[in-house]
Amino acid sequence: MAQEKSVLPMTTLRIFGIADDSIVDGPGIRFAVFTQGCTHGCVGCHNPGAQTFGGGREATLEELERQIEANPLLAGITLTGGEPFEQAAPLRELAHWARARGLTVWAYSGYTFEELVSGTPSAEARELLTLVDVLVDGPYEAAQASHALTWRGSANQRIIDVPASLAAGEAVQVDRGVDRGTGLFVNPMCQSDVSTVTSP
Ligand code: SF4
User: Could you give all domains of the chain from N- to C-terminal order, each with its CATH number?
Assistant: First the structure.
């Protein structure tokens, strides 16, 4: 059944929950925001309670930013869900705020990189994408699920270097190139060469 979306002020979003010191939603210690509401309806969804747009609770950006600032050990934030790109307007503000403080931004989406680039589900979603360092894209597909995968649930999902992909005009995957401890990309051509995740 189609999930009904609601309209909230730009500074407020609807969340399923948060993990303030996650070590499983990207490299390093991360503040993970699980947004509420998703239209993908994946069979075997890991967070079925996050699918309804009316569920969860409202959270202000100020509340989330205060919690993020309280942890100096964070490597970054991770936007997940639910479908974070359905609430792109407030998350665009949060991503911009986080990047200004040197935090990396990861995002998980049931949409593919190509869909988001083309403006699906919204222009705001595409703008949010430009503020993301790494995107784990595509719906969860139970037939391709494996516990052996790093940072993704099923093999169809890709771990994408968003700035490099936007520059190249196509998805650039970085599956082998992210150091778990530092969150830095390791150049697979030269293992001694590391560089930070950079803005587009
Ligand atoms: S995209 Fe994620 S939250 Fe949405 S239905 Fe699929 S697994 Fe569940």
Answer: 12-168 (3.20.20.70)
